[in-house]
Amino acid sequence: MPRSVLLTAFEPFAGATHNPSIAVTERVAMEWERPEQLHREVLPVAYDRAGLRLLELLQEVEPAVVVSVGLAARRDRPSLERLAVNIREAEIPDNDGARPFDAPVIAGGPLALSTTLPVRASAARLTDEGHDVELSMTAGTFVCNAVFYRAATWANLRPGRRAGFVHVPLDRLEDSVAAVRTVIEDALDREADLAVATGSSD
What is the pLDDT of residues 22-31, one digit of tens each? Predict the structure, then answer.
């Protein structure tokens, strides 16, 4: 039985009428030609409902790889996220009106969890192919990060599972599609990430 991939986007939020993560994941799914089964879902921008729906999907799909995609409107290029933090804190309310302050995603969980995607290798590959992407240290503290943290927790429960997050800007569709497709492919095909330093000296 071929391995499966769970690819998630988010609905619009904060009064917007669209969320580019939907278009990005639609393109990736439409162009998917590999033997692995790709399951795509649009999650609510709501801490509790998104978490519950993700858990349902993990049980239904039983994926080998989970890649979630969300909007980072202030960024100008796709960001491959490295860390999910165990913090829910919002400048704006989610779509259910929740606006938590310094609350955990999972009570008692580690403060941060690393992606299990080979993001250094993916970033290098994308750059070599002419795409403008970046590695980002954290995915913030909004619903995107909460979903990432729950997926990373799931991935750490069993060897071989992989989970990560890609933030996309408002535009740059082609770079964003390439970034998401590449991180999925590398998660399926690469056992180890590149051993290169990428941290900031600031």
Answer: 999 999 999 9
Instruction: Give the DSSP H or E segment for 59.
Output: helix 47-61
Give the domain range for residue 62. 4-189
How far is 19 from 70, CA to CA, in rounded Å?
8
Tell me: the pLDDT tens digits for 181-199? Answer: 999 999 999 988 887 766 5
Give me the CATH number covering residue 32.
3.40.630.20
The answer to whether residue 33 is catalytic is no
- Is 131 an active-site residue? no
Q: Is the pTM of this model over 0.90?
A: yes
Q: Which of 18, 36, 144, 191 is catalytic?
A: 144
Asked if residues 144 and 68 have their Cβ atoms less than 8 Å apart, the reply is yes
Q: Name the catalytic one among 56, 131, 167, 191.
A: 167
Establish if 143 belongs to a structural domain. yes
